[in-house]
Amino acid sequence: MTSPTVAPAGTAPRVLARCRDLVRPALSTALARLHPWPHEMASFALGRSTAGAARADGAPADGASEGKGVRQALAVLCAEAAGAPGQSAVAGAVAVELTHAFTLVHDDIMDGDGTRRQRETVWKAYGTGAAVLAGDALFALAVQTLAEAPGPHTAAAVRRLSQTLGGLVHGQADDLLFAARPWTGPEAVGPDEYRTMAELKTGTLLGCAAALGGLLGGAPAATVTALDRTGRHLGVAFQAVDDLLGIWGDPAVTGKPVHSDLRQRKKTYPVLAALAGEGRAAQELAALLNSPLPLDDTGAVRAAALVEAAGGRTATLDEARRHLDAARACLRSVPLAPGPVAEIEVLLGFLLHRTE
Known about the structure:
Elements: H1 11-31, H2 36-45, E1 49-50, E2 53-54, H3 70-81, H4 90-111, E3 115-116, E4 119-120, H5 122-126, H6 128-147, H7 154-178, H8 191-216, H9 221-248, H10 251-254, H11 260-263, H12 269-275, H13 280-290, H14 297-309, H15 312-332, H16 338-353
Antiparallel strand pairs: 1-2, 3-4
């Protein structure tokens, strides 16, 4: 296994910022088409406003965060890797950014999460019904934006986004159903099943972002397919790192309490990988999770220690590294411009070592 590419300090943020600056004006133009109330909530969801106070220039409001913008960056960079200007993929970048925001708004409702990026979620700030409307508006605007993109590849791009939405729904359905399944026994969720869910829920949109960049940049079908596979592998790695942060992440950075996923008994990759073992730590972890008692501070600390002792943390890091290596292999399987590919590889290393 090769070691992940580690970018010099600040390089990945600069790549993300360059792509964000290219996409931001078109994103602002798209959002301005919404009814004023959904526009306010969509801006809040995208980190461009505080509740009730959107910024006209589309930059983050005080106390707000736009997020990393990985999906829109992938669209831009993959167009450039295909030999086209990044501007050719802006409509695709806007569409995937809006789609991502739509999924987060609805996910927060389904999961009952009251905070995201260290502030209230949309449903918490505006109410559940209003948040559903905001998510619907973001979804509709994503499709409309892509359908109106200039060039000969618009219809194919819309078809790809539609297929992606189907994959997202499939993955989210599996994720919700996992919560009702037991921790152990023949009906338990295994690491392989979780990996499939992660590719659908997280990987399909990253794959779509990369593929739309190539498609709108005029890349041949084989290149578009390779870019899609790159994004899908990146998505599984991304989810694996998210799962690590859900247990061991710094609350000052993640905005969530330490061990938050364990307290909520979420079925994440580190826990499932640990339970797949046969040692004493795995057995004790299973007994702890199967207990009807809630996990208090002491129980959550003990559960995290057992996950690590049973190999769950190491297995999850290995999982992330495997999929990042697979993403690099996909990039190298087709002819692409080396400069943009180098920037994509910078992001791959950054995502493995990110702190939020």
